[in-house]
C-alpha cells in the first residue's frame, strides 16, 4: 500500500524500494508482483515489467490476473499473437474470471477482429450478466458497435450496462458522446442530465440515512457506530 501511495505521488524510486520490500517480505504475494509489474509497464519499462509479472506467475501458477496483465503487456510492446497465447492460458486457469475474457475481447477489437471480440464479450457475459465486470463488458461492446456504425446496437448495450451499474460516469458520457456525434444534441443533454439526476438522488438518500441516525437515541451510541 505504501508503495502504491508513493507511485501515485510519482516518487518512483521510493515506490520501487517499497515494492521490493513487499516481495521480499512475502515472495508469493501476487498482488505485490502484479502492481509492481503494471507500475513498471506504465513507466515504459516493458522488459522489467515482464520479468516481474513472470516471477509473480511462477510463484502463483494458478492466478489468471498476472497472465492477463502479461498478455496486455505483450500486446502493447510485442505482438498480438504472443498476447493470445497468454490470454488462452489465463482463460484455462480460471474460465470464470470475466476480466480475462473482456481484456482479450478488447485486444481483438483493437486488432480489427470484430467477430472474435463479440464472441469473447459474449463469453464474459455468459459467466455473470449482473456483475460489475459485466457492466464494463457491455460498455466496451457498445463502443465496438458504435465504431462499427451499429448505433442501435450500441445504444442497447450502453442501456444494458447502465441497468447493471447506473453509477458509471464513463458509460453515461460515452452514450451522450454518441448522440452528440450523430447531431442529437438535445438527446445528449438529456442523457447527461439523467446521470446527474440519479447522482443527486443518491446524495439525497445518503442525507436521509444521516438524518435517521441523528434521531436514534443518543444512549445507544454503540449502534450508531455500527451503522456508520
Automatic annotation (TrEMBL):
<protein>
    <submittedName>
        <fullName>Uncharacterized protein</fullName>
    </submittedName>
</protein>
<dbReference type="InterPro" id="IPR003107">
    <property type="entry name" value="HAT"/>
</dbReference>
<dbReference type="GO" id="GO:0009507">
    <property type="term" value="C:chloroplast"/>
</dbReference>
<dbReference type="GO" id="GO:0006397">
    <property type="term" value="P:mRNA processing"/>
</dbReference>
<dbReference type="GO" id="GO:0003727">
    <property type="term" value="F:single-stranded RNA binding"/>
</dbReference>
<dbReference type="Pfam" id="PF13181">
    <property type="entry name" value="TPR_8"/>
</dbReference>
<dbReference type="InterPro" id="IPR011990">
    <property type="entry name" value="TPR-like_helical_dom_sf"/>
</dbReference>
<dbReference type="GO" id="GO:0006417">
    <property type="term" value="P:regulation of translation"/>
</dbReference>
<dbReference type="GO" id="GO:0003729">
    <property type="term" value="F:mRNA binding"/>
</dbReference>
<dbReference type="InterPro" id="IPR044624">
    <property type="entry name" value="Mbb1-like"/>
</dbReference>
<dbReference type="InterPro" id="IPR019734">
    <property type="entry name" value="TPR_rpt"/>
</dbReference>
